[in-house]
Amino acid sequence: MDVTGNSFSYIVGPIIAFAGLGLLVVLLRWTFKRGGSLIAAPAQQGDPQQYGLLIPVAQPGTYIEGEMLRRSLEDAGVKATLTQTLDGPRIMVWPKDEARARGLIQGQR
Fold first, then answer.
1. Within-domain flag for 88
2. What is the pLDDT of residues 65-85, one digit of tens each?
3. CATH code at position 69
């Protein structure tokens, strides 16, 4: 009778079970961890100077007026964004487009 085959299974069996359980714990912790949502967080309002390189070029009265102005700038080839700041809606552009955007805005008024 060969005894070594049976004694080996007493050691390997629990090791495989604990390894599988450990792998399951790691996968479940990774799956259900907090803080990594696929849904975007709502945008937070800030001062007009808190938007990095973007420069505010217009202060529309309402968000709708701002969206219309932003679209007209986009149609003219100027990359623009409309953001809601603590001081109200602002049209923001990159520094290289500032002069052109201000000229287009002045031409519309």
1. yes
2. 999 999 999 999 999 999 888
3. 3.30.70
